[in-house]
Amino acid sequence: MNYSEALNYISSVNWKGSVPGLERITELMDLLGNPQDSLKFVHIGGTNGKGSASAFISNVLRKAGYKTGLFISPYIVRFNERMQIDNQCISDEELAEITEYIRPFADSMKDSPTEFELNTAIAFVYFSRNNCDIVVLEVGMGGELDATNIIKAPEVVLITAIGLDHTEYLGDSLYKIASTKAGIIKKGSGVVLYRQGEEITEVIREKCREKGCNLYISEPDRLELLHCDIDGQTFRSQDHGNISIRLAAAYQKNNLAAAIKVIEVIRTKGYIISEEDLREGLAETLWPGRFEILCRKPVFLVDGAHNPHGMKAAADSLKAVFKDRKLILIFGVLKDKAYNEMLELILPLAGSVLCVTPDNSRALKAVELADIINSRGVPAEAYDSVGEAIETAFETAEEDDIICAVGSLYMIGDIKQFINTLN
Among 253, 217, 249, which Cα is nearest to 237's? Predict the structure, then answer.
């Protein structure tokens, strides 16, 4: 099996969409000898901030000398981004070899695994074969019934910001969603919670009491912002001195605080992480698709805000960095997202909107989106492709204008690839 054949197989398994449940992944991992049981984990769930927090934590662990695996979703440009060791994506050859190894086991199952379950199994085999010291493991969706939750008690559980998303699967209230996400908490783990509202905090606190786990809540107030521009931010930490990061969005302060708390907790598990490791690991962290600057004259940035919670964070960051300057907005969204709420948050910042259709079967058509936005009094036009929208944005933008693409992670890869062809 070569790389293309592996990707074709992964995407053509008996795809059921998102089907919560641990029965299939349990059967598959049993057939494979449960390689995940040989690994140690930091398990990360939540609605927003999982990717950035994962990147911060994995970079600090790597800097401290630990062979660190990272499992994320979705990818931006190439599938291989989903599985990394020490910031290196899985090679085409190893992905193909592991997929070929797993295929007969998956094919033998009466109830075949979903695509995400297959991806999870490939990742566990990959990290185990390469003898990772620790794996930063991002939940796919939810928590309790997510395929990644087959693991035994992780070293640390991190619950990031929780908002209303995937309500058809996770519940229609913050209480229900938080309860589902709290399902990754297991006896023996330290638990870190991104500081948020009391309703969510109480759900997590109760789960920790049930499992006998210590709960640690992140402390963003212990980080004082010293400087912020499009190249990043510097904070004075009451506990760790000055910390610089290359991620400019205002919401990264909260992700940073959560990541720092995870490192503080994991130190209590016997991991040796110096203050220099902490500061250098954080300073080297990059995370694609989150308030990422692709061009500077004019500024062109992308942010994968794809739900109201994420859009509010993106809007707040845009106002903090660019003040009252109006945006040329490139917007695409999935039709099952709360796009009306997202538009309420971002349209006040837009001078004009270029609407696109993300590369996903669930996408809202650009023409429909443009009609909705025009009805709200903001000029909008539909474009046949991301490339056409980008070319139009550059043609109309002045040198000091801001072009911003938001709304769906599924269009970020196409945008980055197109921008690369222009450079």
Answer: 253
**Residue 166, pLDDT above cutoff 50:** no
What local confidence, expressed as pLDDT, does residue 323 receive? Answer: 85
- Say how far apart CA 296 and CA 150 lie, in whole Å: 44
d(CA 105, CA 340): 44
Tokens 């998956």 belong to: 106
Question: Between residues 137 and 251, which one has the greater pLDDT?
Answer: 137
Two tokens, residue 241: 């001195």
* Beta-bridge mates of residue 190: 156
Q: Hey, what amino acid is at 253? A: K
Pairing of strands 190-193, 88-89: unpaired
Q: Where are any strands of DSSP class E within 116-256? A: 134-138, 156-159, 190-193, 215-217, 223-229, 232-237, 241-245
> What secondary structure letter does DSSP report for 411?
G
Exposed, middle or buried: residue 30 (CB in 10 Å: 0-12, 13-18, 19+)? exposed
State pTM to two decimals. Answer: 0.89
First to last CA, the chain: 35
> From the CA atom positions of the chain, what is the Rg in Å?
21
Question: What percent of the chain clears pLDDT 90, i.e. is strictly above it?
Answer: 75
The chain-wide mean pLDDT, for the chain, equals: 92
